Amino acid sequence: MNNSVSSRDTRLFESIYPALSRFAGAVRPSGVDPDDLVQEALARTLAARSLDSLDDPVAYLRTAIVRVASNLARGRRRHRDRTVRIGTTAGAIADRYPSDLADLMRVSPRARAVLFLVYIEDQPYRHAASILGCTEDAARAVASRAIRQLRRELRAELEMGDPR
Fold it and tell me: Taking a C-beta distance cutoff of 8 angstroms, is the pair 63, 102 a contact?
């Protein structure tokens, strides 16, 4: 286990932090601070290895961020399901943060990761697939399903006249 952070790791992290923070902002579950995701991914990584030892630290940490975000979202769904089963409304009101990316919060962290990388950062699907640990075709399918979901939900809101 690595108990100290080298000055090379510190400099490396400082240089990649802005990209990681933007990415975490796009894939985070509602109400989770992007910096918390970055910090958790970094802590988990540094517990096992130095950043300097990674071939592509940005890709590695993005993968870790998606996994942390997915775990948090899954935990929240389980909690929500439990509270519904026992008849409480705790946690029924989701936090809302105004953002240009607010509609992305409607899809899973995994889907947000693909959409952010491909459409916001203009990365190829193969890059998104490597971050998610899936094939390029699977990344395209995730994006396609997410876009269909967003279109369907936004169209329904427009038809209902939702002022949002």
Answer: no
Q: Give long-range contacts, CB 8 A cutoff, 24+ apart: 52-59.
A: 52/6, 52/8, 52/9, 52/12, 57/12, 57/16, 58/16, 58/19, 58/20, 59/127, 59/130, 59/131
Indicate the average pLDDT of the chain.
82
Domain map of the chain by residue range?
7-160
Rama region for 91: left / alpha / beta (φ>0; ψ in -120 to 50; rest)? left
How much is the pTM? 0.63
User: 86: pLDDT confidence band, cut at 50, 70 and 90?
Assistant: very low
What integer pLDDT is reported at residue 119 of this predicted model? 87
The superfamily in CATH containing domain 7-160 is PhyR, sigma-like (SL) domain (1.20.140.160)
